[in-house]
Amino acid sequence: MIQFKESSLARVNEIIARYPQGKQKSALLPVLHMAQVEFGGWLDVPVMDYVASLLQIDPIEVYEVASFYSMYNLKPVGKFVFEVCQTGPCMLNGSDDIVAYIKQKLNIGVGETTSDGLFTLKTVECLGACGYAPMMQFGKTYREHLTKEKVDSIIEECRAKAN
Amino acid sequence: MGRKLLLEKAHVEGIRHFDVYRREGGYRSVEKALKMTPDAIVEEVKKSGLRGRGGAGFPTGMKWSFLAKPEGTPRYLVCNADESEPGTFKDRYLMEFIPHLLIEGMIVSSFALGSNTSYIYIRGEYDWIADILEAAIAEAKQNGWLGKNIQGSGFDCELYVQRGAGAYICGEETALLESLEGKRGNPRIKPPFPAVKGLWGCPTVVNNVETLAAVVPIINEGAEQYASIGIGRSTGTKLISACGNINKPGIYEIDMTISVEEFIFSDEYCGGIPNGKKLKACIPGGSSVPILPANLLLTTAKGEKRLMNYESLSDGGFATGSMMGSGGFIVLDEDQCIVKHTYTLARFYRHESCGQCSPCREGTGWMEKILLNIENGKGKMSDIDLLWDIQRKIEGNTICPLGDAAAWPVAAAIRHFRDEFEWHVNNPEKCLTENFGLRHYADPIHVPVEKN
Q1: Which of A64, A92, A125 is closest, CB to CB, to B348?
Q2: Contacts of A144 in chain B (CB under 8 A)
Q3: Residues of B in contact with A137 (CB under 8 A)
Q4: What are chain B's domains?
Q5: ipTM, interface predicted TM-score of the complex
Q6: In 3D, which of B240, B280, B241, B278 has the Cα closest to residue B258?
Q7: pLDDT over threshold 80, residue B439
Q8: What is the CA radius of gyration of chain B?
Q9: What are the Cα distances from residue B382, in Å, to A43, B121, B370, B385, B422?
C-alpha cells in the first residue's frame, strides 16, 4: 500500500496549514515533489491517486498538473538523472559536446536509461545558471562549468554511491 | 565603480545567517517602516522611481497603489522567484548568498500592502536555494522579525516558500498564481488584474525578487537618495547577469549610467571577449528581447553611445534598439551562428508554451521546425519570409506575453541577420561545417516587406 512515512505526513500537514482553510489544493506541487522523492523517482498512477486522496481533490486534478510540469517524471527513471541544459547560453559554451559525450560514455540516447538502471540522460531548457555554463541538474543541486573530465568524475561518484 | 545597494554586503563572511546580517545593519528598514504608515511607505517607493526588475519595468509604487482594499478580504504579497528567462540568473544569486535581504524587503512590503501571509514562489529546480530561504525565514521568525506582533508593532506576518516544478510560464504573474493554487500554469485573462483578483480571488501584488530587495535601501536611505543614483527614469541600481562569450561571466550590480561598451570590455565587468575574438551580437535583457548586432549594440542609430539603462537600451524601438528586460546579458562572439542560437531559443519557447492560445502553441512549434531546417541546410528562401510571417501572427495575439517573447527573438534575428539566414539557404552543405562569421552588420533598415 502506498503511504508516506510519518515524518512526511507531518510535513504535508505543515504545508497545508500555510494556506487558508479549504485551499489545501495549493499544496499539490510541493506534495508531488515529496511523492516523487519517496516513491522511486517517478509518479505512477497509484501514487498520484494517493496524493489526490490526501488533498481531498479528484485524481484528474493531480494528473493534469503532473503532466504539465517538466520536473515530474511520469515514467520510471534511473537512480541518477542527468538533466543537461541546452538553451542558448549553454549552447554557446559547448553543451552540445557535453550531451554527446554523456551519450557516448553511457551508451544511451536522450531520454533513455542505462540497462543497469543507474543513469538517465535528459536534456532540459534553461535552468538559470547561464553564467556557469555548461551545466546540468543533478539531484537537488547543479553541477556547473562542465567538462568531459567533470562528467567522468560525476559518473564515478554515482557508481561509487550505487555500490 | 558605482555604489552597490544590494550586493554591498554579499561577500561578508556568514552573511547568509541572521546574526551576521543583523550585525551588518540588516532589518533596520523594518524598524523604520514599522514606525511609518503603510501609505507613507507606498509613497516612498513611488518617489524612488523603482521599476519592476523582473523584465517589464513597470513602476513598482504605482503597481502597489492599484491594490484593492475591500473590507474583510485578505490581501497577499507574492514574490516571483521563478527566474527562468534564458540569460537570467541574478535572483538566484541574491537568494543564495544574501537571503535575509529578500526577507527584509518582503516584511517591509507586506506591511505596506497589508499582507499578513506572503509567499515566495521559487522555480522548482532551485531546490537547495528553497532550503536556504526556509532556514533564513526560521531564523528571522526566531528573532521576532516574522510571526505574530513583529517587534511589538502589532503587525503579524508569515512568510512561506513554495517551489514550482519546471515551467517558464509560471514567471507570468497570473500563471504563477494558478500554480500557487495547485493548478497548471495557464495564464489568466486580464482584467481582472491580480491587484483586484489574485491569489484565491483576493487582491494580490506579485513582485520580482530584486524589486522587493530594492525596497530595503529605499526605506533605509530615503527615496530621494535612491532616485539620485542612475539617470532619467532608470533610478537606483540594477543587477545584470552576464553570460555567453565573455571573460568574466557573473552578476554585476551597476548604476545605470555606464555604457554597454564599458560593461562588455572593461575589466571591472565582463572583461571582454575570450581568445581575442570579436563581438558579433548581444541579447542585452534576457532571451525574449531583440538581439542586436555589435554596431547597433554599442551605439544607437543616432550615433550616440548606448548606455546600460531602460531608455538607452530601447532607443530606436525594435527597428534599431532592444530592451533592458530582466538584465540577462548574453554575448555572442564572431564564431557563433545566429541561426543555431535562434533555433535553441525557439525550441525553448515551444517547450514552454502552455498551449492555451493557438498562435503560440502552433506558431512556436512551426518556428522551431523551420529554424532547424535552415540550420541543417534544408531551408528554402521562402522559409525566411514564412518565419517572419509566423512571428507577426503570434505577437499580440495571445493571452499572455509569452507569445511576444517567442516572436521577438526570431523577428530581431531576421531583421538584423537576414543575410546569415540567406547564406544558410544558399550554402546547404557548407553551413553544416562552417559559420557565416562576422560578415554581417546587416542594414538595420533591411526589414522584410509585410505581406497581407
Answers
A1: A125
A2: none
A3: 125
A4: 18-228 (3.40.50.11540), 235-332 (3.10.20.600), 338-441 (1.20.1440.230)
A5: 0.97
A6: B240
A7: no
A8: 22
A9: 45, 43, 11, 5, 10
Contacts of A87 in chain B (CB under 8 A): 86, 287, 344-345, 347-348
Contact residues on chain B for A141, CB-CB shorter than 8 A: 127-128
- Interface touch A128/B123, C-beta < 8 Å: yes
Select from B402, B405, B289, B404 the least CA-distant residue to B355: B402
pLDDT value, residue B446: 36
What pLDDT is recorded for position B77?
98
Q: Write the DSSP assignment of B139-172 as a string of letters.
A: HHHHTTSSBSSGGGSS--BEEEEEE--S-GGGGS
Q: How far is A116 from chain B (nearest CA, A)?
A: 26
For B186, nearest residue in chain A (alpha carbons): A68
User: Distance between CA atoms of B242 and B298, rounded to whole angstroms?
Assistant: 16
What cell does B259 get?
555604457
B46-104 residue pLDDT tens: 999 999 999 889 999 999 999 999 999 999 999 999 999 999 999 999 999 999 999 99
Q: Which residues of B202-241 are buried (b: 16+ CB within 10 A; e: fewer)?
A: bbbbbbbbbbbbbbbbbbbeebeebbebbeeebbbbbbbb
